[in-house]
Design brief:
The protein is elongated. 62% of the residues lie in helices and 3% in strands. It is mainly alpha-helical and 424 residues long. The protein is built from 19 helices and 3 strands. Strand 2 and strand 3 form a beta hairpin. Bound molecules: zinc ion (ZN).
Length: 424
């Protein structure tokens, strides 16, 4: 089952409705709502605390102070009233997601930052999450389920914790899209264990349609209120929709019609239309303004692009990865790095014609100043596969010059000897 779950479809709470009229937005939570121990709500906080502990111990926790400060400043700009109370963690996970747990800890995923075209888009999504927090939606959901005598949520909270322990067995079940190279299995298993964990959290933090609608509206208002473009709100969902449609897997593409792994959630189109209506008569950015915002945001995420793209390929949905790379290329920067990862996506997908597409991408990559050294290595391998020994030798020698301390030096040197011997 896990293999059919798109990382994007796991953008759980963000796939809500914009159908219902939002409630008055004056009633906001005050700080420090931690319930007394033994109270009915205490379990919700305990689960949040456990999730926070897990996140802080996770290898996925990003440790870059510059990126951390950037995200914190953005959240404090959006929500100065909660700035002192929120604990913000940036997680290196290739999934479009962010959460604001009831206990005040916030996770922002690299997959969201990679997919935001501008700071306005990121600000809208974070504003949405802060609105869930501000409106106590998690607590409301908890109470609704209790009132209905519904034990499902309580069980799901347990599942979210159990999911952590169960990850290894899920990851080792072998029930995932068959990787065509043995060295990807470890990566894929790691990604799957993350997805199992996220699925547990998704279930735990699943909000009602009305709450999603309200968070949409309030998030857009919050971001617009501090100067961000309100049209960024529908724009990021349109981008996500297009990426889902580019998936390799029919189950994922169909998820647009079903909207989400949760049957109760409505169509994404409704949500986009509601956000467009709310943006209303606000003028669109000019082309120059839009371009300036794209470039400013790219400068922020540039130091992380390579790692985030590498992680994205590990999701093994290369149709989505290729679509994402095209969007990133549209900014007109980082073209050497992006062409290299385009080549990697084709090479790993390995369908008819993909290897020649990969070769073309590597050849393009090395014409740009920002091409990584690995582009020459992969170009060498691709030229060698295509029977172009002289070009392969040139590329592999350039790789060794550009990456003199690389761990695979002995392997490449041996390959060069073989190529030269067979070609002399
Ligand atoms: Zn939400």
């Amino acid at each position: 089952m896990i293999r059919t779950v798109s990382a994007l479809a796991l953008a759980f709470c963000l796939w809500g409705s914009a159908l219902a009229a939002p409630a008055a937005d004056t009633v906001m939570r005050s700080a420090n709502l931690r319930p007394a121990s033994g109270s009915p709500e205490a379990g919700l906080w305990q689960a949040s605390d456990e999730a926070e502990t897990y996140a802080r111990q996770s290898a996925d926790l990003d440790s870059d102070p510059v990126l951390g400060a950037y995200v914190r400043n953005l959240i404090c700009k959006l929500a100065p009233e909660y700035c002192g109370e929120l604990r913000i963690l940036v997680m290196t996970r290739p999934v479009l997601n962010a959460t604001a747990a009831p206990n005040g800890y916030v996770e922002v995923y690299s997959g969201l930052m990679l997919r935001s075209r501008t700071e306005s888009e990121l600000a809208y999504v974070l504003g949405h999450e802060i609105s869930h927090f501000a409106r106590n939606h998690a607590l409301a959901q908890w109470q609704r389920n209790k009132t209905r005598g519904n034990v499902t949520l309580a069980i799901q909270v347990g599942v979210s914790v159990v999911a952590i322990a169960a990850m290894a067995s899920v990851a080792n079940s072998g029930d995932f899209y068959a990787p065509n190279k043995i060295d990807y299995i470890g990566d894929a298993a790691q990604t799957l264990s993350d997805l199992a964990y996220i699925h547990g959290l998704a279930t735990y933090f699943a909000y009602s349609r009305e709450d999603e609608s309200e968070a949409d509206r309030l998030g857009q208002i919050r971001a617009h209120g501090v100067g961000y473009d309100p049209w960024a709100a529908p724009a990021i969902w349109q981008s996500v929709g297009a990426e889902v449609r580019a998936s390799e897997y029919p189950e994922v593409r169909k998820s647009l019609a079903r909207a989400t792994i949760f049957d109760t959630h409505p169509l994404t189109e409704d949500r986009i239309e509601a956000l467009k209506r709310a943006a209303g008569s606000t003028p669109h950015q000019t082309a120059e303004e839009s371009r300036a915002e794209e470039q400013a945001y790219r400068a922020i995420i540039r130091p992380h692009l390579a790692v985030w793209l590498r992680d994205d390929l590990r999701r093994r949905d290369l149709g989505q990865s290729l679509h994402l790379i095209s969007r990133l290329e549209a900014v007109g920067e980082d073209l050497g790095l992006l062409a290299y990862y385009r080549g990697e996506a084709y090479r790993q997908r390995h369908r008819d014609g993909d290897l020649s597409s990969a070769l073309a991408a590597y050849r393009l990559s090395i014409t740009h100043a920002d091409a990584p050294a690995e582009a020459w290595r992969e170009l060498g391998e691709a030229e060698s596969r295509a029977g172009n020994a002289p070009a392969a030798i040139r590329a592999l020698e350039t790789y060794l010059t550009r990456a003199p301390g690389s761990e695979d030096r002995w392997l490449i040197e041996s390959e060069l000897e073989t190529l030269k011997a067979s070609h002399s």
